[in-house]
């Protein structure tokens, strides 16, 4: 069977398996096994098992469950609540300030947790009900949280950046630093659009009240409480800064930094929030274990899938077709962006990175693009997939948090933020230094 026909059949099979609700890891593994056995016979079962386990046996993958454990410790503690209250103190009185403070909270919480779903859930549980109680439209309330949650895979420490670094053998520390400026640039674009949307809707600030004297009596108490909440968050931010310093300063490897970061975040959760009981710590471990197993299964299955595509010469055919395009390198980048965008519509970020990064990196280098700049471009494309159907993980998380908000309203509220991400990609294309300047400054 020629590679093109084989590729079409594999793609159809994968889509059918996912359409009937098969988990992504099992869908990738099943279609890979069927394709290998159909092409080469039962002897391929041996290579299937070896490939499945060999890839995730790399020591570098130890960093993934450690960063996930670090994020679980933050997500399971009241850190998100304290962060939200502190930012609301400073921004809540602006028109649309509460929505802007939610995006700010998402940005900082993303740096603490490294997970988009955790960010979306932690901030959304508090932010959405509060915004709706103050009269914000459902679309604005849901959309700003869904979009803000996507920053978890870009702002360091990011699990997807670790996976990209391992898959392409690039510096994880440099990848982390490359995501800082673009991550906060996207947060700024989100805030600008939120302010515009609130202005168009009539402006939203603090609720109107008539009990002026009561407000005067309680404002000092609220300020003190929110400042104390901010003080409780600062040690967690110090852990993130320390991790970045250890990585780009050459003090520790990503696995070592992740392990130390996980330990300190659990210790801080216990000390600051008095989480002494066994049950909260058990929940932290359970959540971290679930997400780690899910990601590692996807990585292993995606590696087998990549092996199957390579064995059937599908990968080489696609890469060759892209490389043979006699077009300007920016047209080539446009084609790659469309490909990544479509892939992100259907597959989770981890699967897309493991399957496509090793294929696309040689093409990117041949076109004289910076691999760390491309990592940021790739990640933003995958962020768009988190708030667009048919998968749109963040959309479903928001819908589960606020089930009385229709999925249509969540989607319509999120689409303008997807356009902000497209604008972010264009800005990075015009100004690549947004992603490369800080790593070059700090690491040479």
TrEMBL record:
Segments traversing the membrane: 6-38, 59-78, 98-123, 175-198, 229-251, 257-276, 288-310, 330-361, 373-402, 414-438
Record bears the keyword Transport: yes
Sorted UniProt keywords: Cell inner membrane, Cell membrane, Membrane, Transmembrane, Transmembrane helix, Transport
Pfam families, A to Z: DctM
Record membrane topology: Multi-pass membrane protein
Keyword Coiled coil: no
Principal cellular location given in the protein's record: membrane
Protein localization: Cell inner membrane
Ranges where the TRAP C4-dicarboxylate transport system permease DctM subunit domain occurs: 12-434
InterPro entries: DctM (IPR010656), TRAP_DctM (IPR004681)
Similarity field: Belongs to the TRAP transporter large permease family.
Subunit (UniProt): The complex comprises the extracytoplasmic solute receptor protein and the two transmembrane proteins.
Role of this protein: Part of the tripartite ATP-independent periplasmic (TRAP) transport system.
PANTHER family per the UniProt record, alphabetical: C4-DICARBOXYLATE TRAP TRANSPORTER LARGE PERMEASE PROTEIN DCTM (PTHR33362:SF5), SIALIC ACID TRAP TRANSPORTER PERMEASE PROTEIN SIAT-RELATED (PTHR33362)
UniProt protein name: TRAP transporter large permease protein
The species this protein was found in: Halomonas rhizosphaerae
């Amino acid at each position: 069977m020629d590679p093109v026909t084989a590729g079409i059949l594999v793609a159809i099979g994968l889509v059918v398996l996912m359409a009937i609700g098969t988990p992504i890891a099992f869908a990738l593994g099943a279609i890979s096994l069927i394709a290998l056995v159909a092409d080469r016979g039962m002897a391929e079962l041996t290579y299937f098992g070896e490939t499945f386990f060999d890839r995730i046996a790399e020591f570098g993958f130890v960093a993934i469950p450690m960063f996930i454990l670090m994020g679980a410790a933050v997500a399971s503690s009241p850190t998100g609540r304290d962060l939200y209250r502190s930012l609301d103190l400073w921004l809540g009185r602006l028109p649309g300030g509460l929505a802007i403070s939610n995006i700010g909270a998402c940005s900082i919480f993303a740096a603490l947790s490294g997970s988009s779903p955790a960010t979306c859930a932690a901030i959304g549980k508090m932010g959405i009900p509060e915004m709706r109680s103050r009269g914000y439209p459902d679309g604005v309330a849901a959309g700003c949280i869904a979009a803000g949650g996507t920053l978890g895979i870009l702002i360091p420490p990011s699990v997807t950046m670790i996976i990209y670094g391992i898959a392409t053998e690039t510096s994880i520390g440099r990848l982390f630093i490359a995501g800082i400026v673009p991550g906060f640039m996207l947060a700024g674009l989100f805030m600008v659009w939120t302010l515009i949307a609130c202005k168009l809707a009539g402006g939203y600030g603090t609720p109107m009240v008539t009990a002026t004297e009561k407000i005067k009596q309680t404002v000092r108490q609220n300020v003190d409480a929110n400042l104390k909440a901010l003080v409780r968050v600062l040690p967690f931010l110090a852990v993130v800064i320390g991790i970045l310093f250890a990585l780009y300063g050459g003090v520790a490897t990503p696995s070592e930094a992740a392990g130390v970061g996980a330990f300190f975040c659990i210790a801080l959760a216990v000390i600051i929030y008095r989480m002494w009981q066994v049950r909260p710590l058990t929940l932290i471990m359970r959540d971290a274990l679930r997400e780690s197993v899910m990601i590692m299964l996807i990585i292993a299955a995606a590696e087998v899938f990549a092996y199957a595509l390579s064995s059937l010469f599908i990968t080489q055919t696609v890469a060759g077709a892209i490389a043979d395009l006699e077009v300007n390198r920016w047209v080539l980048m446009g084609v790659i962006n469309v490909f990544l965008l479509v892939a992100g519509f259907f597959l989770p970020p981890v699967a897309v990175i493991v399957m496509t990064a090793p294929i696309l990196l040689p093409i990117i280098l041949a076109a004289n693009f910076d691999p760390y700049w491309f990592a940021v471009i790739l990640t933003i494309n995958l962020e768009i997939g988190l708030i667009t159907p048919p998968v749109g993980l963040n959309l479903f998380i928001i819908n589960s948090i606020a089930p009385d908000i229709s999925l249509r309203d969540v989607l319509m509220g999120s689409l303008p933020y997807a356009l902000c991400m497209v604008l972010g990609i264009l800005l990075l294309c015009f100004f690549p230094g947004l992603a490369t300047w800080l790593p070059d400054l700090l690491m040479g």
